[in-house]
C-alpha cells in the first residue's frame, strides 16, 4: 500500500502546530495503524528528521494509551482501539489525516500525545470504598444479583482511552464518568460512599474543563469497549438522589 499522511506536528504545549504531509510506501495491509507509524518514524530517523510522537503501551487494546483522531473519527473507521486498527481498513492511495484528541481537558504535549491526567484526577476524587481488607472474604458471603454483576463488569471495561471525549462535540467526559460511577454503584461494596462519590467526581469533571452532556450519543458510538449510553442515566439518577440526601 502507498498512503499520503497528513499528521499534526506540534513541538510543545505552547508551540503553534500544523499538519505536515508525508508519503509512505510498502505498507502491508496486515500492519496495525501504529506499526505503520513506526515505519514512518524509521524513515524520518534515517533522514535525520524528528520522529512523530504518539502514545502506545500494550498495543493489545487493553491499556487505553493509544488514541488518535483518524480522518475525523476517534480511533479511526473501525470500532476498536487505534493499536488494533489494521491498514486493511484503508485503501492504497488514500489520504489519511491524523490528529491528537481535541479537548481543553486534554492539552497537547507534543505532536499526537495529549495529557489525559484529568481522568486520573476524576478517579482520585471518587475516593475509596469501605471494605475490610484484613482478610479475604468468602466469595459468596456478599451475594450480588447477576444482573447487577453483569452491569458492573460491563462498566468496568472502560479503559480510559478518551475516545468518548474526542468524539463528543462538547468534549464531555460523562460516558467515562458514568462508567466509573456505575461500576461501583452496582456493587454492595460501593454503597457507603456512593452519594459523595458521584458529587465529588462530577465536580472534578467540570473543574477539569470537560463539556456538558447533551445526549448526542457520539461517545457511546466511538467507545471501543462498547460502554452503553445508559451509564450516564445512572450517573444522573445517583446525582439526583445524592442532592436529596437519599444516598
TrEMBL record:
One term of GO molecular function: succinate dehydrogenase (quinone) activity
Reaction equation(s) it catalyzes: a quinone + succinate = fumarate + a quinol
Domain of life of the source: Bacteria
Record text on cofactor binding: Binds 1 [2Fe-2S] cluster. Binds 1 [3Fe-4S] cluster.
Residue span, 2Fe-2S ferredoxin-type domain: 18-102
Record-linked InterPro entries: 2Fe-2S_ferredoxin-like_sf, 2Fe-2S_ferredoxin-type, 2Fe2S_fd_BS, 4Fe4S_Fe-S-bd, 4Fe4S_Fe_S_CS, Beta-grasp_dom_sf, Helical_ferredxn, SDH/FRD_Iron-Sulfur
Cofactor: [2Fe-2S] cluster; [3Fe-4S] cluster; [4Fe-4S] cluster
Database matches in Pfam families: Fer2_3 (PF13085), Fer4_10 (PF13237)
EC number: 1.3.5.1
Keyword Plastid belongs to the record: no
Entry coiled-coil feature ranges: none
Top EC class, one word: oxidoreductase
Xref: PROSITE patterns: 2FE2S_FER_1, 2FE2S_FER_2, 4FE4S_FER_1, 4FE4S_FER_2
Domain 4Fe-4S ferredoxin-type: 149-180
Alphabetically ordered keywords of this record: 2Fe-2S, 3Fe-4S, 4Fe-4S, Iron, Iron-sulfur, Metal-binding, Oxidoreductase, Tricarboxylic acid cycle
Keyword Membrane on entry: no
Record-level GO BP terms: respiratory electron transport chain; tricarboxylic acid cycle
Family under the similarity heading: Belongs to the succinate dehydrogenase/fumarate reductase iron-sulfur protein family.
Official protein name in the record: Succinate dehydrogenase iron-sulfur subunit
Annotated organism of origin: Janibacter hoylei PVAS-1
Amino acid at each position: 500500500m502507498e498512503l499520503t499522511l497528513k499528521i499534526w506536528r506540534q513541538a510543545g504545549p505552547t508551540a503553534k502546530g500544523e499538519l505536515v504531509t508525508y508519503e509512505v510506501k510498502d505498507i502491508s495491509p496486515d500492519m496495525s495503524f501504529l506499526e505503520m507509524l513506526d515505519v514512518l518514524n524509521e524513515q524520518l530517523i534515517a533522514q535525520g528528521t524528528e520522529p512523530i510522537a504518539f502514545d502506545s503501551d500494550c498495543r493489545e487494546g487493553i491499556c487505553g494509551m493509544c488514541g488518535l483522531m483518524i480522518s475525523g473519527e476517534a480511533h479511526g473507521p473501525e470500532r476498536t482501539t487505534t493499536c488494533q486498527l489494521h491498514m486493511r481498513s484503508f485503501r492504497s492511495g488514500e489520504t489519511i489525516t491524523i490528529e491528537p484528541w481535541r479537548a481543553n481537558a486534554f492539552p497537547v504535549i507534543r505532536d499526537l500525545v495529549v495529557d489525559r491526567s484529568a481522568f486520573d484526577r476524576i478517579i482520585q476524587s471518587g475516593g475509596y470504598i469501605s471494605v475490610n481488607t484484613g482478610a479475604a472474604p468468602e466469595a459468596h458471603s456478599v451475594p450480588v444479583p447477576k444482573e447487577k454483576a453483569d452491569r458492573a463488569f460491563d462498566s468496568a471495561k472502560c479503559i480510559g482511552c478518551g475516545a468518548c471525549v474526542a468524539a463528543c462535540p462538547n468534549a464531555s467526559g460523562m460516558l467515562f464518568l458514568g462508567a466509573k460511577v456505575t461500576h461501583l454503584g452496582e456493587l454492595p461494596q460501593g454503597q457507603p460512599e456512593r452519594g459523595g462519590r458521584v458529587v465529588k467526581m462530577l465536580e472534578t469533571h467540570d473543574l477539569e474543563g470537560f463539556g456538558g452532556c447533551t445526549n448526542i450519543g457520539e461517545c457511546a458510538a466511538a467507545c471501543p469497549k462498547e460502554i452503553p449510553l445508559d451509564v450516564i442515566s445512572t450517573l444522573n439518577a445517583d446525582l439526583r438522589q445524592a442532592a436529596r440526601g437519599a444516598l
